Amino acid sequence: MFADTLTLALSTGNIVVTKINQDAFGSVFRFNDATHEMKLTIRHSKASKNGVAYDRHNLELVETIYAAGAVPEFTRTFYFVIQQLPSDTGFVNADGIADLMIVTSNAHLTKLMNWES
């Protein structure tokens, strides 16, 4: 079980999101101030592919930046999904992708955002 608060270490500073809802297969965390809202959602579900059952784990972060002057409200969304057999507890692929983005000092993220592939 995740704690009731989580600290997101963003390059713009730490944000503490607080759990505002929890059900059997998910939780929602939220931070809000005068300029923006951060909502972190964690969900778990089952998926089936070719008759094989998979566990599906999803983490989604949505930031809503409130309107200011002539700039209208907008959102930023980031998420990832891990889908694998229930008996497969490995997370080497997710760890490798996260490390790839970090080890390059975000250069790969910059390339991704510039439509490079």
What does this structure look like?
A hairpin with a 2-residue loop joins strand 1 (5-10) and strand 2 (13-23). It is built from 2 helices and 6 strands. It is globular. A 6-stranded antiparallel sheet has the order 1-2-3-4-5-6, with no helix packed on it. It folds into 2 domains: 5-86, Beta Barrel (Porin); 89-117, no CATH class. The chain has helices spanning 92-103, 107-113, and strands at residues 5-10, 13-23, 26-32, 36-49, 52-65, 74-84. The chain is α+β, with helices and mostly antiparallel strands and 117 residues long. 3% of the residues are buried.
Counting DSSP H or I runs of 4 or more residues, the number of helices is 2
Order of helices and strands: EEEEEEHH
Task: Let me know the average pLDDT.
Answer: 95
Q: Tell me, what's the shape?
A: globular
Give the structural class: alpha+beta
Topology:
Blueprint: E1 5-10, E2 13-23, E3 26-32, E4 36-49, E5 52-65, E6 74-84, H1 92-103, H2 107-113
Antiparallel strand pairs: 1-2, 2-3, 3-4, 4-5, 5-6
